[in-house]
Structure formats: C-alpha cells, structure tokens
Amino acid sequence: MKVENEIINSNPSNPVPKKKKELGLDSQGIQKTMRLHHFLGDGVGTIALNSISGLIGMLTYFYTDKVGIAAASVGTIMLITKVINAFTDLAMGKVVDMTKSKYGKARPWLLWTSIPTLLAIILLFTVPADASATIKNVYAVMTVTFATAIIYTAIAIPYGSLMAIRTRSSEERGKIGITRSIFGYIIGMIIAIILIPLTNMLGGNQAAWIKVAVVLGLLSSISLYIAFLASKEKNSEGMIQEEEESVPFLESIKLLFKNKYWVIMLFAQLFINMMYVLSGSTGVYYTKYILGNENLVGIMGAVGLIPVFLGFTLVGPMMKKFGLTKTARIGLALGIIASLIRCFMPYSFMAALILGGIATFATIPMMAVGGVLVNNTVEYGEWQSGKRLVGMVNSANSFGVKIGSGLAAAIIGWILAFGKYDGTLATQPASAITSILVLTVYLPLALFIITYLLLRKYDLDEKYPQIVKELAERNSK
Fold this sequence. Notes:
The protein is an all-alpha fold and 477 residues long. It has 18 helices and no strands. α2 (46-65) runs antiparallel to α6, α2 packs parallel to α16 (390-418) and α11 runs antiparallel to α17.
C-alpha cells in the first residue's frame, strides 16, 4: 500500500509534514483530483489562445484600414488558412495521442510552444506595407497559417486534452471550463476594448499595432509556461491513468464520426465561435460607420463587462442546478430573444448597449461548458468502442474554434466587399452600411438559433455517471 505525505521521524527538529486534506468524490460519486492552484494555473493558459484568436479577429480591420489589403482578399486569406487548419487539427490530435515524454503527452506542448507563440503574434502585424498587393497577400497567408494552423493548434489540442487527462469528474471539468473562460474572456475583452483606442493613442499606424503585439506576445508566452508548471498528468490523488492503445489515424477518424456527441460538438463549437469572432471583430465597424465614432467600441466593451461579470458569477450555480448542457441552452435561448428584439432597432446605440449586453451574457455559459461537453465525449467514445482518443477528440474543439473563427473572418471580408465597403472612405455607401448591420445584428441571431438547435440533441449529461461507472468496472477486471 502506498502511503503519501507521511514521514516517521523521531527528531523533533524535523517535524512531520501535515497530510493534505482528502479531495473526496464529486456529486456524481467520481473521484476529485484538483485543488485551487491547479484550476488557476491551468486557466492562465487560455490567455495565449485568446490572444491569438482575438488578434486574428481584428486582422480584417488591420489589413483593410492599416496596410491596404482589399476586403475580399482578406476574406479569401482567412478561408484558405482555415482549410489548412482542418488538416493540422486532426493531425495534431493524433500527435498528442502518440506523444511520450517525461512530462506526459499533452503538458509538454505548453512548454514547447511558449517562445514560438511570441514570434507568431508579432509576425501577424509585420506585413510589408509598401510592398505589392501580391506580396502582402502571400505574407498574410503565411503568417496567419503559422499563427493558427501551427502554433494555435499545437497549443489548443494538448491544452484541451489536459481536461480529460487531469480528471474524470464532470464537476471538476466544469470548474476548469469556468476558470479557463474567465481568463480567456479577460484577455479577449482587453483586446476588444483597448486595442483600437490604445493603437490610436500610440499613433494609429502599423508600428503602434506591432508594439501592442509584442506586449501580448510576451504575456502569452509567460502564461503558457505558468500553465505548464501548474499542469499534472500522472495524478497521485485517485485518478486511474489508462494506457491508451495506438489507433491508426484513419480508424480514429471513423471512430470520431461514429461518436454522435462529438459530431454535435464539432458543429456547435464551429457556430458559436463564429459568434465570438463576429462580436469581437465587427464592433469597430458598427461604432465607426453606424454611430460615427470608432472609439465608442471601447465604451461598449467596458459596459459589456457588466453582463460578463454576471455571467461568470451565475454560470457555476446554473451548472449545479440545471446541468452542463441545459445551462448552455438557457444562455442561447436568452441570446435568441435579445438578438431578435435588436433586429427591430438596429441603429439604436442603447439597443446595442443593452440588448448587445444580454447577448454577451448569453454566450458565457457555452463558453464555460463547451470544452467540458467536448471532453465528456472522450468517455462516451471509450465506452462505445473501447478506444480512448483524448487528443483526437479534442481536435473537435480546436477544429470548431478555428474553422468557425476562419469562416466568420472570411464572411466579414466577403460581406463587406459585397456591400462595396472601402476602408479609405470616411463615409461608406448605403450598401456598406447594410453589410455592417448584417454582420452585427442579423447574422448573430441566426448563429444563436443554429447552436441552440444542435445542443437540443446533446443528452450525454444524464448518461455520463453510468458510463464512467461502467468504464471503471471494465478497467478493474
């Protein structure tokens, strides 16, 4: 029998260390494995991911208004890079499942990507401004691909996998999701609120954007290192660590698409991340051309912190009362109502503040539980097929995030181009104003509805405790 934290020592000058308080079982009878510092250290890692995704979301504005890339070209660039991502995500899932190191299979990637993340963020904004349109476009494709298809992927899938490796407890995974969402939302809101006013204060030119990118790159690099230090794969507090079988890549893909809950979350994550990009990337167009002052995006973002605070305060109790999936559906239903009302007053600043704030609140539950719902499909897939595919399952989360964000960024560019938007004009034509309203008012409503309908089909919450119990019985034989 292994005895931890006990030292038999008769020397009074060398006192016996106190034994750590036992973590016990969660409300579903599943062993807990995490303490407060684990949750906080793990959550910090989201800063790097949301810095990259937040900055990618602002690239359309940077490209069109700061370095002169055509809006239609920007949309195509974003789509090309996300098609590439479709392949790197799935490949990275397999790489994680095959990784073997002294730090584990997922945790070391946080360390290995810390410095490349700094480089990737800076390169996004060092477009040769005086070069030809072709060179600008090629440079943009290369740097966005490096930042998203390589670096973001190499962080996101291992980081997502840690949730399934670290604990089987759906309750603890829910807390991980909330903590990650809080850290991620903080950096996301900083980018949404401060980026435009700060770069304008620093001169409003490309050099100003590069300076901000350096700061965010350093912060992201440090956050990954902290998450690496706080992570743990070989847990000594009750979680059984199974040896995962080596499953051929094509068989892994087939198994994923037989896992109905994985497929649901693949598309749910895709559509909800389109929502996140639209809300984070189009506000500057709305405030600049609909309201007449681009710096109002900072005020709207600051006011938007109120529903964010309320959302993160309430999501924990909601999860306890309603469960993971129902909590997300309640939020989405609220978003549908607020977005529908706003369709009748699209030019109103107060409607944008109040109803937009409610819509922001509505996204918090899904932000908190999305990764948990993805990782719970690991156990379902293992129960269904006998194969535990942690890395490949988490490719759904990253795939959905990046394809969704890429499609949204592409759609922004295409819709602006269709509306004859021209970043060099102080006053836009009526068609461009309509395109901005589509992006900021009407399209978000459609995305809320689609995501809600998808989650109506996700009923794994009720089955999960029994699945974990049956898996434990199988592993004990």
